[in-house]
Amino acid sequence: MLDLSPSSRLRPKQQGFTLIELLMVIAVILILAGITFGISRGVQNAQARAKAKAELATISQAIEQFKSVNGDYPWTNDVEGEDPSIVLSKSLLGWKEFVSSGNTTTFQDKTSVPTSGPEGFIDATKLSINGTLPTGATKPTNVEFTDPWGNEYLYLYKENASWDNFGYVLYSKGPDGSSETVPDTGIRPAVTGKDVDNIYAGE
Hints:
Elements (H helix, E strand, L loop, with lengths): L5 H4 L9 H52 L13 H9 L3 E6 L2 E6 L18 E3 L13 E3 L7 E3 L12 E4 L26 E2 L3
Antiparallel strand pairs: 1-2, 3-4, 5-6, 6-7
């Protein structure tokens, strides 16, 4: 039976969400998404920095092993016009040596290696690289050890005649991929906007 009582006629109609309510819900969702994204980016960056530090420690250990066998760290004074990052990889893969002639010592590629390849100082398969690792007696050409952001690790030692650093300089340029030029003295560039995120070996 149809209800025509006053109470039924005065009952309010049910309504959906208003535009303002919908906008408020969307705003809350966007804020929560932004917070989640920021936390995720922060975690990823922290993981990448931790990985870079671990890889720098691995490379540093290999450099020290190289010195214990060869008497000095790999030189990067462009004896053969090679990029320092390539000099580093070739050295740690066992393809570089010091050659003395009279009072002159040069740092150069090995001219003779076993068919199985030289004995290296690092397991490069545990690092990220640009280029292709050689097999056997095939000399590496453009192999570089790279950081979690895809940039080569920077290594310098006796870069020029005025080099007066205590030892070698090894670091990652960090997330921004930028760095100032390493000076002849002091272990690292002055801290500026370009290199505040650099990660140095031993930090």
